[in-house]
Design goal:
The chain is of the alpha+beta class and 290 residues long. It folds into 2 domains: 157 residues, Ribosomal Protein S5, domain 2; 121 residues, GHMP kinase, C-terminal domain (Alpha-Beta Plaits), CATH 3.30.70. It has 11 helices and 11 strands. Strands 1, 2, 3, 4, 5, 6 and 8 form a 7-stranded mixed sheet that branches. Helix 1 packs parallel to helix 2 and helix 2 crosses helix 3. The longest helix has 16 residues. 48% of the residues are buried. The mean pLDDT is 96. Bound molecules: 4-diphosphocytidyl-2-C-methyl-D-erythritol 2-phosphate and adenosine-5'-diphosphate. Its EC number is 2.7.1.148. Belongs to the GHMP kinase family. IspE subfamily.
């Protein structure tokens, strides 16, 4: 049996961390969307029982149990009691450790694909329960559509489609350690974006209200050690984006544009300052996940 699936990158339109639980886990309130930029994953069954082999075209990825796709496959096979070998080949298009959830999305794509391949009949909620054991963005990525994410990442409430918009992503050439950023949440006075206003903007398909209420509590923490993120954000707006923000714990920033032609203008201008630049639309409008 063989399947090829896409694993889309996510963007955080709104990210609030209202409090930290006594065990150190962060309580999230995030509005996320998935975009056309995606990894391609081929999954094949093999007769080497209980052997999960990961191959990828990226030298940045672990190809053993540390790979999130491996962990997802392992948990799924245990849960449904299937004995098979798997070969999982990842074509990596999403920049790694960029705040775009590439690893979580690969893991979620593997869960969805195995569920279909073996006709296991698990609901998205059940796949999300497996996914939360891998990391906190996997439940969202099982749905991979615009959604409100809360709790420790396990509560996913799908929202309606975003109005037409374009994103211009720019990934500066710096490394950000997510654990290092997240550890600082408990001890830093972070700002809290207006998530309810953002939700109202989405509910009313109101582009301007959405753009004026994007916000990310982690931005101040990451920017404190990497001020170039702030510069890149300002440049995106200077070149014509209606708003700009960092995704996740960074370092990728994105600008939002209402039209494709404006997005291309911003793309061309920002390309002079940043090597890794992408244009994408929200996932659900154009490209079904399978
Ligand atoms: C911040 C977000 C927002 O979408 O995006 P990314 O930047 O990853 O894309 C994610 O929630 C992120 O998800 P993820 O990377 O899965 O985070 P988690 O699994 O919760 O934690 C990542 C790592 O940070 C550590 N961690 C987490 C919380 C905390 N208070 N202190 C920590 O040291 C965890 O132990 C783990 O090793
Ligand atoms: N399939 C995968 N794709 C990307 N990264 C992975 C994968 N499996 C494990 N990782 C590890 O997960 C970490 C986070 O990567 P990624 O999910 O791309 O970024 P982020 O958490 O910033 O959204 C990296 O250190 C990477 O080595």
């Amino acid at each position: 049996m063989k399947r090829i699936v896409r694993a889309p990158a996510k963007l955080n339109l709104g990210l609030d961390a209202p409090f930290v639980h006594p065990d150190g886990a962060i309580e999230w309130r995030m509005v996320m969307t998935s975009i056309g930029l995606s990894d391609h994953i081929q999954i094949e069954t093999t007769d080497r029982h209980d052997n999960i082999r990961i191959l990828s075209d990226s030298s940045f990825l672990p190809n053993d149990r540390r790979n999130l796709a491996y962990q997802a496959a392992h948990l799924f096979l245990n849960k449904v009691g299937i004995q098979t070998g798997l070969k999982i080949s990842i074509k990596k298009n999403i920049p790694v450790a960029a705040g775009l959830g590439g690893g979580s999305s690969d893991a979620a794509a593997v869960l969805r694909a195995l569920n279909e391949m073996f006709d296991a009949g698990l609901s998205f909620a059940e796949l999300a329960q497996i996914g939360i054991q891998v990391d906190s963005d996997v439940p969202y990525c099982v749905y991979s559509r615009t959604a409100l994410v809360s709790g420790r990442g396990e509560i996913v409430t799908p929202l309606q489609k975003l109005p037409k918009m374009w994103f211009v992503l720019a990934k500066p050439n710096i490394s950000v350690s997510t654990p290092k950023i997240l550890r600082q949440v408990a001890t830093t006075q972070v700002s809290h974006p207006q998530i309810d206003e953002l939700l109202a903007g989405i509910e009313n398909s109101d582009y301007d209200r959405i753009v004026s209420n994007i916000g990310n509590s982690l931005e101040e923490i990451t920017t404190a050690s990497h001020p170039q993120i702030e510069t890149l954000k300002s440049r995106l707006v200077e070149y014509g984006a209606d708003g700009s923000q960092m995704s996740g714990s960074g370092p990728t920033v994105y600008g939002i544009c209402r039209t494709e032609s404006r997005a291309h203008r911003v793309y061309n201008s920002i390309s002079g300052f940043c090597n890794e630049v992408y244009i994408a639309q929200p996932e659900c409008d154009t490209n079904p996940v399978f």
